[in-house]
Design brief:
This protein has about 400 residues and is α/β, with parallel strands linked by helices. About 25% of the residues lie in helices and about 25% in strands.
Length: about 400
């Protein structure tokens, strides 16, 4: 069914997320905003409280070889889960590796409790849809490296050249254009947000999309626009906070005309793109980067934060999110970066930095121009500006 929901709060609540259990010893505590350890008695009390709730919706799905069960009181969140993951029939016949209990009214403020030993996540006090989606990804980001799989907060797509389709990965923080660029009509979309990289191939984590709707049009975002129309006609569209600046739309990949099928051989990536919305016009529009430059950009996840993004901010300032998704990557950053660098080396992957922001005159690069830069890099490569880009990044990190 089609769903429209106004959430409270209107975004994720990372400051209200806590981890529990002996396995918390593996968390990266140098990022305490996202990795906080709670008291066992607090979890047990709240878990008992959550067990008093009647969960009307029980959904089971598999992703990256793990089985998840989501139990929720809310039909709107159940539809969201169906859109984002391939839910199986007869959920009680499947033994879940992880269970997520979701009950919006059971807490006055958002609470996200994750017991790493008991494999239980509790989400309460929030109706924001992304809390469930990112909860699953956060769990996978904790579990997959031990299984020799790299969880990645990135989009993925293929581009058909002579010799067949070439797989590409695209990393970028919110506002850098990741969803827009990876949804180009000439590409076949694998995922708009999350994938895993194993010794065999790239794997889908989700089988749905969760795209921002602001500025959506048939001219600028034809793939997303047409998918939304089809999802709406098939009663499979979820609208979150319509009309708000952070409004989003959820729809299954089956409504994306040029989507890759989950059974297809997705292959190892040939190219990786790091996106930065550089508001100071310091970086070239497209650059090949290598070695330490790749690792440094990945471990810092740089982009620009524009004036007005937060109350009281009236200047452009650098924004950093390690692994291009710090809130969802709970292990030490080096765990992910070392795996990435190893995979890049084994499979001889090209890595490019794309500036989706401003040129040196302060003029924003057009979407068409940036799309052409990406395609040019895929087809012919790009200038090697690795040392230049690294020097600029270090100056931004040091505040100079």
């Amino acid at each position: 069914m089609n769903i429209s929901i106004i959430t409270h709060p209107t975004g994720r609540s990372p400051e209200n997320k806590w981890f529990f259990g002996e396995r918390t010893s593996a968390l990266d505590l140098t990022r305490p905003k996202y990795n906080k350890i709670g008291r066992e008695q607090d979890f047990q009390w709240f878990y008992a409280h959550m067990q008093d709730v009647e969960y009307k919706h029980n959904l089971v799905f598999y992703t990256c070889g793990m089985c998840f069960r989501v139990e929720t009181t809310d039909i709107r969140h159940a539809q969201f889960v169906r859109n984002m993951f391939t839910v199986v029939d007869n959920p009680h016949d499947h033994c879940a590796d992880w269970v997520i209990f979701h009950s919006p009214p059971s807490s006055e403020e958002p609470k996200i409790y994750v017991h790493l030993d008991d494999h239980v996540m509790l989400i309460a006090g929030t109706t924001f849809l992304g809390e469930i989606k990112k909860g699953v990804f956060g769990i996978l980001s904790f579990e997959l490296p031990a299984l020799d799989a790299l969880p990645m907060h990135c989009s993925a797509f293929t581009y058909h050249l002579n010799g067949g389709p070439k797989t590409n990965l695209m990393f970028g923080l919110s506002g850098t254009g990741k969803t827009t660029l990876s949804s180009d009509p000439e590409y076949r979309l694998i995922s708009d947000d999350e994938v895993a990289w194993t010794s065999d191939s790239v794997q889908m984590i989700e089988t749905g999309c969760y795209a921002k709707s602001e500025g959506l049009s048939a001219e600028t975002h034809p793939t997303i626009f047409n998918a939304v129309r089809l999802a709406d006609s098939q009663d499979m569209l979820v609208e979150e906070n319509p009309g708000a600046s952070n409004a989003r739309l959820s729809y299954p990949l089956s409504t994306v005309e040029n989507a890759y099928d989950a059974d297809d051989n997705l292959r190892h990536p040939v190219n990786i793109f790091f996106l930065t919305m550089d508001a100071k016009g310091l970086f070239p529009p497209v650059s090949k980067i290598t070695g330490e430059t790749i690792k440094r950009f990945f471990e810092t996840g740089y982009t620009s934060q524009m004036p007005g993004t937060e109350a009281g901010d009236d200047q452009i300032k650098p924004l950093f999110s390690p692994c291009y998704g710090s809130p969802f990557m709970p292990l030490d950053i080096s765990v992910y970066s070392d795996m990435l660098m190893e995979m890049i080396g084994i499979h001889k992957v090209n890595v490019y930095l794309i500036n989706t922001g401003m040129d040196s005159d302060g003029v924003r690069y057009s979407l068409d121009f940036t799309r052409e830069c990406v395609k040019l890099a895929i087809e012919k490569g790009a200038p090697d500006n690795s040392d230049v880009c690294l020097n600029i990044l270090e100056e931004l990190i040091n505040g100079s």
